[in-house]
Structures are given as C-alpha cells and as structure tokens.
C-alpha cells in the first residue's frame, strides 16, 4: 500500500487516489472524500489519534485506522507547518 | 377548513436546521420519541399566508439517504413510505451556504425520490464575510427547484420560505440525476422485475442495510429477495452513485457558486489551533467542565432552596387550611412532597442543558470529542461521554438526559448505564454524617482521614463507572456503525432562542416524562410510611403518651431535654447578669417551665412519629428485611432508612432522624443520636467502623434513586435497562458491603 492520509504531516496536502478498498465508510465519501479531491491534515489529537482533516471544504475528524484506508498522492510544494 | 400541508424538514447536521424549525413553528412545537425507538421526534405547526397551515416534522440530521444509523433510517423510512401519516407533501432541504456542495448531495437524492423539494440556503449572513457569491436564479433553474436564501440569525428570508411552502404544488418533481447509468444492466433487470415501481426508491430499499441495520422492508415485499448482488458489490455501486452525484453538483456549482478563498480562511484555523492543542485544549476543557460542575453543584442550590421552602410551606398551608383527614395528608405529604421532589431537579437540569446547548451551538462539542476520543475509546465510551460522566457527579438525572448527544447507540447506552455510579450530590449528606461518625481523627500526609475517605469514595465512583463500562463494552452485542467520522463544524455564536428552546424542552420532558413515575413512587412510599394495619399504628398517639406517662421519655430525649434546659437557663442568667434585660425569679422559672413544656411537646411528637414509622407498612418491611441486612451490620431501623431512601438517597438521614425520634433539622443532634445507638447484642455502638464502611460502600454502589431509574426508562424506552441497573447495582453494592463488614468487624 502506498502513502495514506495517516502519513500526512500537519499542514500537508494530498490528492486522493482511486480506492482499492471498499471498507471505507460511505459517510466519508458523502462528506466529499472522493478520488481526485484535495485533502489537508489540519490537526492531530493528543496521543496521535484521531486526526482532523479538511477535504473538499469539509472539516472532519477520523480515526487513524480509517485514515490508513485512504491512499493519496502528496502535493510536494505544500509547506509543512 | 383548509388542508394541512405535511412538510418534512431535512438536512445535514450543523446546517441550522433546528433554527429554521424554531423560526417556522415558534413555540407551537412538541418533542417526543418515534414509537418504539429513542430517536427524538420534533414536530410543530406553521401558519402560512392565506390561512393555510403546515405540519412541520423536523427529521434527524443526515448527510445522505444511505443510512448508517437509526436516526437516519427514521428519515429514510418516512420519505419512502407513502402510507405513513406523516409522509411529506413537501420536503424542505436545509443547507448552509459554506458547505453547499456537500449539502446538495442530500438534496439531489430527495429530488430523485420525486418529492417536491425546496432548497433553503441558510447562514446567508456569513456570505460576505466568507467571500461567497451565489447566483440564485441560475441555481434554481439548474436544480429545477425553488430556493430560499435564509439567515435564521438575522431572521431574514423566512417569509419567502413560507410563501414557497404554500405554493408547493407548483414545484417540479423532475429528477436531478439518473442513477441507472452506474450499472445499466442491473437497473434494467430491476425495472423488468418491478415495472410499477420507481427505480430510485427500489434502489434505496435494496441498499438500506448495506451500511447499517435493516429497516423493515415492508414497502416492497419482494425487493429483499432481489439480492442478486453481494453487499460489497452494492456498496461499490453506492460509491459510484456518490461520485456521480458529486459530478453533477460540481457541474452545477461551477457557474453559480464562487468562493474567494483568501477571505474564507483565518478565524476558524487559529481558534482550532488553541482549542485542540494538546495542552491548552485540555486546560480549556477542564475549565469549562469545572464551570459546568460549579453551575449544577453550587448555583442551582439557590433556586433549589427556594423550591424546597416553597413546597414545605405549601404543604403546611394545605394542612392548616383543609379539614384534617386522609385526603389532606395525601395532598400535603404524598403529592406535594412528590412534586417538590421532582421540581428540585429542575434547576440542575436547566443549568446543565444551558451549558450543553451552548457547547453544541458554538461547535465546541465536536472539539471535545476530538480531544477525548482516544482516552475514552478503550472503555467503549465516546468522547461525548465525558460531559455526562462529569455532570453525573452533581446529579445523574440531567447527566443521563445529556447522553442524547451521543449518536452511537451502544456508546450512549453504556454511558447511561454507568453514569449512576459517579458520586452524585445526594450521596453527600450520607457520606458526611457516616464519615463523621466512624472515621477516626488523624491525618496522612497532611490530609485528614475523613477528607481522604471522602475523596476515596469519589474515586471509587469513577472507578466503578469506568470499570463497568469496560465490561459492558465486552458483553453488549449491539450492532451499529463501528467507524468514527465527526464533522468539525464552523465556530458560531450561539442563538439565544435555540438555547432557550433546548433548556425549556429538556426541562419539560423531564417533568412530564420521568416526573409521572417519580410522583407515583413517592406517593406509594409515603403511603407505606404513614399507614399501618395494626392497632399499634392506629393508636400510636395514646400508646406513646401512656408510655411516657409511666416510663418517661426515652433516655436520649430525657438527657437532651435536661441539657437543653440548663443551656437555656444559663443563657438567660448570662443576659441578666450583663443587664441585657431584667427578669425576676418568678418570671425566670415561668420562662423555664414554658421552655420545658415546649421541649417535652416536641419530644412527644418525635416519639409518636418514630412509633408510627416503626409500626407502619414500611416499618414492617424494614423489620422483614432485617435478616437480609443483618450480615451487612445494619439493624431494622437502618433497614427502614435504606428502603425509604430508594426515593432519593438523601432521605436516608431524614428517616433515621424520624425513627430515632429526633428533629431532622438539626444535623448535630442526629449525629449525636446515631453515635448513642447501641447494638443490643454486642453492647457496643451500632455505627462503628465496620458497619459505617459497609454503609458507605452500599450507598456508593447501590441504585438508590427512583428518579434516575425513571429517566433511564424514558431515555431507553424500555424497563429492561433500568431493571438491569437496579438489580446489578444493588447486588454489587450488597456483596461489597457484606465483604467489607465481615472483614472489618
């Protein structure tokens, strides 16, 4: 498996790749977590979990285990805060 | 009479749907439950132009029609079922202007059900600040609908919305998206199998249980047998459907919706940085929790005192005004005391929900979940369980009601079940008096043993709650969504109107829902405690008077009368010697005689009520359970107090006061009297370390609170859970108290 949302650093952005896994909750898709969309890691909770992302304008918190299911392509030029 | 229009209000969470509902209905609303389940049902009446009325049903918030929870399946079932009496003639989809894209997903789905739909774009007041422009006429054309641009904060746009509702017959019912393109072959087959049904409806029914529990498929009896595709294939199709819808929406918004990103950012990001910070985040949360705690523990004390005084005087007014008799007693001591007992909780409930609705309205609650999720997860609790658990330290009743904010049913149920373990304020009077009696003086590391014991009892309560959550998490087999997706909404200033409605609603639902049960039980308890079948009870006045004639007062009352009199005499003589006032010897002895008569009258009353309680039904029950409580170190008197304190724990001390025939208003007297109580067999004090610790532990764990049980019944919609709580907590308390007494004695 390639790079996933779980590996993003705070402030870093990526583009979601095609899903290989259909165990991803449908709710995430409905909130805009779709292939081709930009995703940004906004904040990480204490104890590293859950994480807080901004995808397609939706601000949502998900657990690390879910974040590991979302593969992406990191946008290299985003400055890491 | 004109026909009433059935309107369903539907929308994503955090879009201000409830504000729109409040604006449309005002106070013409009622909140209940859907039959058989614990999903909240809000409905109200809205008056429209030209004398038309609309019945508005506020459906649970949902992101789409693909159900992932009970709340959402309620919404979907209503939209699908044409035979439901609330089936809408019209759906109002509420969206917020900042998240329009995501909100439109739900809108297109509803449109595809061919239900006439109006789009409300809320929070229009934020547009300029966020750099958003929307071309409403063009958007209306492309979505084939009517749009009301609304700001519930400023009260703008509601009139246009009402206008649109009354004109609903002119709305188009053309679908937005043709979903059959995601798998033409499959939908072709579906069409052949059910030529008379709408394809999108069929599709929804078939996929209902892919993400969640089944809703009953009574709509199309054969549809469930049409499971030619596996669950994962269906799920994949749902994904395709979602992508298809977003393509449609993106295409539409391209020409109609613009955001100037440079303006949009800022405030939220910086606030998030502080509020979810790994140190400041917790500090701020702790401060907020402490404020809530202070509110329900301290501030609500003032109105509570007023309520208590009011009902006490109402009770004595009734006794003085109505002719004496059974009916007067029932009103004064049974009903009024019962209602007073319910009203006592109102300040605490109001305070807690004031705070909770502020936290929800501002968007802070989601940050709490974000901060606490990792800590609570191992125990099967949610980040949102923290608020109920902490406020349970003041009172379990509002705390159990507060669990409504937890969406996941299993997490919510566990929170409800374990909250009564936390040390509520009603346990405090018992703890304080018993600790004062049995825990020796002395200190450890500068902390007194008594203070340490009290702290230990608080920790014990929390420990028991967490530990039982852990066990319940293992044994409760409840299906539900196991994933965690929490939206972090934008920060907003709370709308006072919404906060006020929440406080009002919660208070009302407690008084009307749980209040009935509490009143019934308190009347029963009153009846048992103030009635008896034996002659001993009926002739109590004479029996006690005769006994006092022949044997005099009880030893304790005799000594306390003597000491009270000499203290009184001393005080008067003091005043005379300092010339505060003048009094000759005759007047002095007169005054002393009067005081003595007063004290003896009081003692007589106390001994009569003690005798009555002993010979009442409750007294017999107390004696009957003595063999059961004896191994815990209690006698029948404590047995009676344990029984009566089922009404509320704090009643324990009052009952002991009655049964020991001392005034219940003097704490020191009760304590002295309890210290003087001798175990007839051992000739040692009845309240010693062993029996005291046993009592403390019993009250720490036992479910001695009918009001909590009534609220749990209301919140879980069944007697099963409160019954389980009562049985398990009482059994656990009994065993722990038994072990403690037998080891320590």
UniProtKB/TrEMBL annotation, chain A:
InterPro entries: Fe-transptr_FeoA-like, FeoA, FeoA_core_dom, Transcriptional_repressor_C. The keyword Iron applies. Residues 3-74 form the Ferrous iron transporter FeoA-like domain. It holds the Pfam family FeoA. SMART domains: FeoA. Keywords: Iron. Signal peptide: none annotated. This is Ferrous iron transport protein A. It comes from Zobellia barbeyronii.
TrEMBL record, chain B:
Residues 4-171 form the FeoB-type G domain. It is a multi-pass membrane protein. The chain crosses the membrane at residues 279-297, 335-359, 413-439, 451-472, 510-528, 686-711, 723-741. It is found in: Cell inner membrane; Cell membrane. Gene3D superfamilies: P-loop containing nucleotide triphosphate hydrolases (3.40.50.300). Keywords: Cell membrane, GTP-binding, Ion transport, Iron, Iron transport, Membrane, Nucleotide-binding, Transmembrane, Transmembrane helix, Transport. Probable transporter of a GTP-driven Fe(2+) uptake system. PANTHER family: FE(2+) TRANSPORTER FEOB (PTHR43185:SF1), FERROUS IRON TRANSPORT PROTEIN B (PTHR43185). Belongs to the TRAFAC class TrmE-Era-EngA-EngB-Septin-like GTPase superfamily. FeoB GTPase (TC 9.A.8) family. NCBIfam families: feoB. This is Ferrous iron transport protein B. The gene is feoB.
């Amino acid at each position: 498996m390639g790079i996933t949302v779980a590996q993003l650093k705070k402030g870093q952005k990526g583009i979601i790749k095609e899903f290989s896994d259909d165990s991803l909750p449908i709710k995430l898709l409905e909130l805009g977590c779709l292939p081709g969309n930009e995703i940004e890691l906004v904040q990480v909770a204490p104890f590293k979990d859950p994480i807080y992302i901004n995808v397609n304008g939706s601000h949502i918190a998900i657990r690390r285990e879910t974040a590991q299911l979302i593969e992406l392509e990191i946008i290299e030029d985003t400055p890491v805060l | 009479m004109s026909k009433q229009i059935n309107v369903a209000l539907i929308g994503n969470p955090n879009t201000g749907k409830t504000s729109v509902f409040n604006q449309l209905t005002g106070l013409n609303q009622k909140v209940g439950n859907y039959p058989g389940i614990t999903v909240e049902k809000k409905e109200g009446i809205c008056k429209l132009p030209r004398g038309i009325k609309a019945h508005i049903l506020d459906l649970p918030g949902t992101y789409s029609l693909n159900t992932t929870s009970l709340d959402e399946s309620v919404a979907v079932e209503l939209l699908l079922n044409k035979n439901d009496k609330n089936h809408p003639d019209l759906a109002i989809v509420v969206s917020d202007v900042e998240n329009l894209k995501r909100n439109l997903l739900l809108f297109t789905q509803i449109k595809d059900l061919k239900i006439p739909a109006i789009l409300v774009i809320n929070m229009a007041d934020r547009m300029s600040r966020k750099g958003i422009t929307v071309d409403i006429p063009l958007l209306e054309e492309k979505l084939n609908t009517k749009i009301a641009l609304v700001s519930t904060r400023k009260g703008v746009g509601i009139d246009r919305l009402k206008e649109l509702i009354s004109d609903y017959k002119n709305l188009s019912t053309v679908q937005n998206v043709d979903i059959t393109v995601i798998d033409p072959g499959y939908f072709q087959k579906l069409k052949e199998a059910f030529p008379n049904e709408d394809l999108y409806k069929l599709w929804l029914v078939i996929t209902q249980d892919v993400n969640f529990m089944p809703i009953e498929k009574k709509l199309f009896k054969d549809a469930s047998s049409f499971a030619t595709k596996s669950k994962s294939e269906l799920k994949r199709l749902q994904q395709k459907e979602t992508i298809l819808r977003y393509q449609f929406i993106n295409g539409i918004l391209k020409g109609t919706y613009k955001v100037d990103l440079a303006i949009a950012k800022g405030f939220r990001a910086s606030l998030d940085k502080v509020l979810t910070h790994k140190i400041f985040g917790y500090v701020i949360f702790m401060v907020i929790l402490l404020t809530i705690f202070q509110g329900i523990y301290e501030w609500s004390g003032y109105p509570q005192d007023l309520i208590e005084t009011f009902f006490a005087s109402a009770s004595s007014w009734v006794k003085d005004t109505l002719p004496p008799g059974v009916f007067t007693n029932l009103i004064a001591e049974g009903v009024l005391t019962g209602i007073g007992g319910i009203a006592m909780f109102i300040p605490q409930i109001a305070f807690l929900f004031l705070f909770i609705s502020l936290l929800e309205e501002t968007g802070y609650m989601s940050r709490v979940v974000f901060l606490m999720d990792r800590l609570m997860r191992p125990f099967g609790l949610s980040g949102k369980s923290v608020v109920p658990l902490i406020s349970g330290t003041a009172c379990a009743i509002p705390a159990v009601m507060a669990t409504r904010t937890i969406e996941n049913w299993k997490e919510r149920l566990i929170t409800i079940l374990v909250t009564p373990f936390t040390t509520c304020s009603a346990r405090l009077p018992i703890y304080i008096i018993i600790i004062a009696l049995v825990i020796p003086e002395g200190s450890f590391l500068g902390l007194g043993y008594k203070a340490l014991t009290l702290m230990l009892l608080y920790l014990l309560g929390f420990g028991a709650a967490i530990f039982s959550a852990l066990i319940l998490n293992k044994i409760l087999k409840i299906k539900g969504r196991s994933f965690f997706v929490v939206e972090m909404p934008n920060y907003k200033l709370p709308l006072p109107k919404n906060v006020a409605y929440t406080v009002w609603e919660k208070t009302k639902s407690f008084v009307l829902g749980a209040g009935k049960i509490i009143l019934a039980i308190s009347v029963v308890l009153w009846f048992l405690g103030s009635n008896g079948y034996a002659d001993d009870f009926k002739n109590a006045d004479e029996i006690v008077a005769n006994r006092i004639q022949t044997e005099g007062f009880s030893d304790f009352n005799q000594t306390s009368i003597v000491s009270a009199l000499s203290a009184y005499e001393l005080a008067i003589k003091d005043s005379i010697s300092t010339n505060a006032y003048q009094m000759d010897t005759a007047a002095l002895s007169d005054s002393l005689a009067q005081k003595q008569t007063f004290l003896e009258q009081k003692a007589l009353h106390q001994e009569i009520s003690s005798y009555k309680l002993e010979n009442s039904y409750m007294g017999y029950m107390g004696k009957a359970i003595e063999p059961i409580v004896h191994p815990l170190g209690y006698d029948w008197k404590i047995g009676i107090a344990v029984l009566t304190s089922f009404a509320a724990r704090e009643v324990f001390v009052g009952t002991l006061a009655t049964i020991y025939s001392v005034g219940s208003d003097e704490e020191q007297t009760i304590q002295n009297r309890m210290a003087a109580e001798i175990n007839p067999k051992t000739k040692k004090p009845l309240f010693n370390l062993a029996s005291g610790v046993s009592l403390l532990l019993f009250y720490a764990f036992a479910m001695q609170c009918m009001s909590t049980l009534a609220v749990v019944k209301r919140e879980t919609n069944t007697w099963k859970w409160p019954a389980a709580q009562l049985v398990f907590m009482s059994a656990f308390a009994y065993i722990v108290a038994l072990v403690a007494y037998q080891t320590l004695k």
